[in-house]
Write a structure and sequence with these properties.
44% of the residues lie in helices and 11% in strands. The protein has 334 residues and is α/β, with parallel strands linked by helices.
């Protein structure tokens, strides 16, 4: 049974989802392009033609309904395209995508999770749309700034986030996130959760080898500045600020042949910039399948604050995943 503190934190998490969904610019639903990212195609070290392709999954943000939608997409792709952890080499998740990424990578029962979403049996506080206040004006100004590089802007955002007094602590947030995850330990599959170092402005992709608790890594990915506290990890603080692009480095490191990108766009920047990086990679020979939401997406995005929209979001995810199954299946076979 959630404590009163957990319920308050749940309401704040849902408020964050609503703000992301209603179009505030530069919230970290997907990251920002790096000026140094270069197109990269199939590595010379890629798997031979007789072996399966090396595949990565990138999961974008999207708030509470983003978790439900991505769960539906992944469940449909498992059933209709054979997309399982056994045929994937790396999964990277941002914010909502970090939650869905843990579920997929840890081999959680996606059918059960879909059923929970349909019946409302999920960890989500019952609040009405529009509740929860707003990001402070000074944070809005920092998030909207285009002055300097992404890292310079993130460093300013991080400093401001660390200075804000919020009613919950880093430990509160990590503890609440732990109750939302289907696993407590890092999965065997190479799963990574993106975040931003508030002191340096640098984007990080947490992985098992870093020795960071899984819940802390996921919490740091969802800690929207101005709503939720920065998450303290090894004496540094992390927040959900705009990311620099990581696709090119990931493809090179993991010798990937293909990427499946799953991210429902929100009205402003959200999931577009990592897609731009993928376009450059695709021009260099990488195979890419994009799943970004079909008819009904707008309603799901705008209703991200309302827990009652999660059943609709997971149904849409099932539909969008089924529509993409043929393309994903072909990618996995070649």
């Amino acid at each position: 049974m959630p404590t009163q503190s957990s319920s308050r934190l749940g309401r704040r998490l849902l408020a964050v989802s609503a703000v992301v969904a209603t179009g505030l610019p530069l919230l970290a639903a997907c990251g920002s392009p790096s000026s140094t990212a270069q197109p990269a195609g199939r590595s010379a070290a890629a798997s031979p033609a007789s072996a399966r392709p090396r595949v990565g999954i990138i999961l974008g943000g999207g708030g509470e309904t983003g978790i439900a939608w991505q769960t539906g997409v992944l469940a449909a792709l498992r059933d209709k395209a054979g997309l399982t952890p056994d045929v994937v080499d790396v999964v990277v998740g941002t914010s909502a995508g970090a939650f869905a990424g843990v579920a997929f990578s840890s081999k959680a029962d996606l059918h059960r999770l879909v059923s929970n979403e349909k019946t409302g049996s999920v960890k989500s506080a019952p609040v009405t749309p529009g509740a929860g206040g707003a990001i402070p004006p000074e944070m809005l100004a920092a998030l909207g700034s285009t002055e300097g590089t992404i890292e310079e802007r993130d460093k300013r955002i991080g400093a401001l986030a660390m200075s804000m007094k919020l009613p919950i602590s880093s430990a509160d947030l990590v503890g609440y996130v732990a109750t939302m995850l289907p696993a407590t330990q890092w999965p065997a599959l190479d799963f990574r959760a993106t975040s931003v170092n508030a002191e340096t402005g640098k984007t990080v992709l947490w992985k098992s080898a870093d020795g960071v608790p899984l819940a802390a890594a996921v919490a740091s990915s969802a800690a929207v500045p101005g709503f939720l506290p920065t998450v303290e990890i090894n004496g540094q603080h992390y927040t959900d600020a705009p990311r620099t692009s990581f696709s090119a480095a990931l493809v090179a490191e993991k010798h990937l042949d293909a990427i499946i990108y799953i991210g429902m766009p929100t009205p402003n920047l959200s999931n577009t910039v990592e897609e731009d990086a993928l376009k450059r990679l695709e021009a260099g020979g990488l195979r890419v399948v994009r799943i970004t939401g079909g008819p009904g997406s707008d309603e799901v995005i705008k209703g991200a604050l309302d827990p009652k929209v999660r059943p609709k979001a997971v149904e849409l995810g099932l539909s969008d995943g089924a529509a993409a199954a043929d393309g994903v299946g072909k990618l996995l076979r070649h």
